[in-house]
Amino acid sequence: MVKQIKIIAATLLAVFSLAGNAFGSDAWELWVASDEESTHTVSHDKWQTILDSYLVDDTDDGVNRFAYGKVSKADKALLKNYLSELTAQDPRDLNKNEQMAYWINLYNALTIDVVLDEYPVTSIRKIRFLTSPFGPWDKSLIKIDDEDLTLNDIEHRILRPIWQDPRIHFAVNCASIGCPNLQGTAFTADNLEELLDKGAVEFINHDRGVDGDAGKLKLSSIFDWYGEDFGSDVDEILEYLSDFAEEDRQSLFVDYESTSYDYDWSLNEAK
User: Fold this and answer.
1) Which tens digits make up the pLDDT trace of 68-111?
2) Rounded CA gap, 14 and 2, in Å?
3) Does residue 210 contact residue 252 with C-beta atoms inside 8 Å?
4) Residue 45's CB: how many other CB atoms inside 10 A?
5) Cβ of 43: how many Cβ atoms within 10 Å?
6) What is the pLDDT of residue 14?
7) Does the N-terminal peptide bond of residue 136 adopt cis geometry, omega within 30 degrees of 0?
8) Are 41 and 188 contacting, i.e. CB atoms less than 8 angstroms apart?
9) Residue 268 falls within a domain, yes or no?
10) Does residue 137 fall inside a structural domain?
11) 118 falls within a domain
């Protein structure tokens, strides 16, 4: 029991430390290297097949959902095969754009795989392990070059600190309604900028990203947990978000008296 309490305390400390630092903790030096002369491309065709088959991105409420309960045994195997192919690739042999697409797709595919392994669940937060009692994010899930990696490693020790691009928050998906959309197109070096912007526009112009009424501004908790990635205070955060907001939502960013935060951890499931 004492050991478990220590693990929980350490996990909480790690979570709050990551959220309190701009772009997470220091970059994991092992994965900083790249080969900018490389023209090698990683195939994400198998991931695209999964997305084409099970992602529902034409919903009435603008929230992309995944049909976890309909994934066939063969496609579960296809997803694991895709993950095996990615982890057999050393991302340091890729150029930076190819790397970024690699890590984003790996994070999203791993998240789907974790949920499928534990399905049915109503929330990813209910998927717990001794080393990761608040969800699956701190469990070692894969090895690359003999190094164990967790979902938190990919997001907070690689993607955020190495690229320092706030749009990463709109690209990685945590299988929840409150999360920015899982995109229906696999990330590649060629479509990276387009999809990063698309994710930002979709989320910031959706009520679960930014909402307001009678001077009360309600933001996604992402902008609380990782606010320093977007700006040093609320005004700077809103200035960043307003660059992606449509004209009819611009008033939300200036005519407000108070701010609050919310997040829906319900599984982003398509029935």
Assistant:
1) 999 999 999 999 999 999 999 999 999 999 999 999 999 999 99
2) 18
3) yes
4) 9
5) 13
6) 43
7) no
8) yes
9) no
10) yes
11) yes
Query: What phi and psi values does residue 22 have, to the nearest 5 degrees?
Result: -60, 125
Structure tokens at 46: 């198998």
Please identify, among 204, 228, 244, the residue that sits at the C-terminal boundary of a domain: 204
Q: Domain ends where: 171, 204, 237? A: 204
Q: What is the pLDDT of residues 185-213, one digit of tens each?
A: 999 999 999 999 999 999 999 999 999 98
Residues above pLDDT 90, as percent of the chain: 86
Q: Which helix (H) or strand (E) holds 104?
A: helix 96-118
pLDDT score recorded for residue 83? 98
180 phi and psi, to 5 degrees? -55, 155
Q: Do residues 237 and 224 lie in contact, with contact meaning Cβ atoms separated by under 8 Å?
A: no
Q: Would you mind telling me the total number of residues written for the chain in this entry?
A: 271
Looking at the structure, tell me whether residues 69 and 200 fall in a common domain. yes
Of 181, 186, 263, nearest to 219 (Cα)?
263
Determine the pLDDT at residue 13: 38
DSSP letters for 117-161:
HH-S-SBGGG--BTTBTTSGGGS--EEETTEEE-HHIIIIIIIHH
Regarding whether 167 and 114 lie in a shared domain, the answer is: yes
Whether the model pTM is above 0.85: yes
Same domain, 130 and 8: yes
Range of the domain at 6: 2-204
Q: Would you give the distance in Å from CA 84 to the centre of its chain? A: 20
